[in-house]
Design goal:
mainly beta, 2 domains, Immunoglobulin-like, 5-stranded antiparallel sheet, 0% helix, 389 residues, 6-stranded mixed sheet
């Protein structure tokens, strides 16, 4: 029997050209909220009107230790903004949000100013963190440094308490979520400064209640209170003038000569402020310290040496109506406690807001001979001065 075999070979079909399949789809880049880091401390610059003890005009305000600013003073802070979308189109602003109407004339409205791009800041001062990640280096592809600063306007436009912050907002194409730094802080703009002394009329009495005769001593008490807004601390000073004679009144001066005034040298005072008082007064005098050449002496007599005996200090003479720089280290009410800052000033001379006040006792050692009636000048026999620090 003959068998036949059939062999079947199966070969794949081969085409001359390749084939492919297209894949469709898309990707959306997440819109990132910008991150803002404050870099280093903010800086406060003085206005160009009245210099302080160690702060010159337009210099950093070393004495300022509270959260308030006055017209003409400047605030500045450096920040770094981080945005992975498009850092060069981010809008960065320093914003002041009004926290409610104050008691002054201003409207206490919100205020903002654009920040200015600057070169790289010291990145080590930025506390740059994203979640748990601590960024160690500055990346100019996704980061930009700015300085944010403004000058305080007058109280008609800027008055009261504000929350101050820096915000970074993307452009409309990138989204509308703004980022802000965590260092939001309250500031009081143009706080009103005021003092009160109760009854402004001095009523001198002797200790035994008898009449004030030539050669006797009489006393009068006041309490000076700081009624300023915004937690303003006040550096306190005192000056005085001779009392004027009425009609033909005459009184001996410090040299024993009869004059048509009651000499300021007949008056002295003592004061206390918490733990400090004039019993421990340092009796530092501008002339003794060699500071006379630094100040204008035309409006204020700084040549009188500061002397305190049993807590009672003499009073420097005021020659004009305004506050003078020469009063520093010369006419403080209390030269005890200190320094406040920068090795200058006296903590005992700083009057806090809301305290019960600074008691002052005036003493009159009535000269002999003396007769008639004497009254204070129109602006007052004694001037209590206060400078915000």
């Amino acid at each position: 029997m003959t068998m036949a075999f059939l062999a079947l070979s199966i070969m794949p079909a081969v085409m001359a050209a390749g084939i492919g399949t297209g894949l469709g789809g898309g990707v959306s880049v997440e819109e990132m909220r910008p991150i803002v880091w404050q870099c280093g401390g903010r800086m406060l610059l003085d206005e160009q009107v009245q210099p302080w003890r160690i702060t010159g005009e337009n210099n950093e305000m070393y004495e300022r230790s509270q959260q308030y600013l006055f017209e003409g003073e400047k605030y500045s802070v450096d920040v770094v903004v981080f945005d992975k979308n498009k850092i060069d189109t981010v809008d960065v602003r320093l914003e002041l949000e009004a926290m409610g109407a104050g008691d002054g004339e201003g409207d206490n409205e919100d205020y903002g100013v654009n920040c200015v791009a600057i070169d790289e800041v010291n990145f080590d001062d930025c506390n740059a963190r994203i979640g748990e990640e601590d960024l160690e280096s500055y990346n100019e592809d996704v980061m930009q440094s700015y300085v944010c600063s403004f000058t305080v306007k007058d109280s008609e436009f800027m008055y009261g308490e504000y929350d101050m912050r820096v915000e970074a907002c993307p452009n409309e194409e990138q989204g509308d979520e703004c980022g802000q730094y965590v260092d939001v802080a309250p500031w009081y703009m143009n706080p009103v400064i005021s003092l009160s002394t109760g009854d402004a009329t001095l009523d001198f009495e002797t200790l035994d209640g008898e009449d004030i005769l030539p050669g006797t001593t009489a006393y009068s008490n006041i309490v000076v209170k700081n009624n300023a807004e915004g937690g303003v601390l006040l550096d306190m000073f005192i000056t005085g003038e001779d009392w004027q004679a009425v009609d033909s009144a005459r009184c001996a001066d410090e040299n024993g000569d009869l004059q048509t005034f009651l000499t300021l040298a007949a008056f002295s005072y003592k004061a206390e402020n918490g733990n400090w008082d004039t019993y421990a007064d340092k009796q530092i005098d501008g002339g003794d310290a060699g500071l006379l050449a630094k100040y204008d002496q035309t409006d204020y007599d700084a040549l009188v040496s500061r002397t305190c005996v049993n807590g009672f200090c003499n009073i420097n003479k005021q020659l004009n109506a305004g506050f003078e720089e020469a009063m520093f280290d010369d006419a403080e009410i209390i030269q005890d406690g200190g320094p406040v800052k920068g090795n200058v000033g006296y903590w005992g001379n700083v009057l806090n807001p809301g305290s019960v006040g600074m008691p002052i006792t005036f003493r009159l050692d009535m000269p002999e001979p003396c007769y008639g009636e004497f009254v204070t000048p129109s602006e007052g026999g004694f001037m209590i001065w206060a400078e915000a620090i």
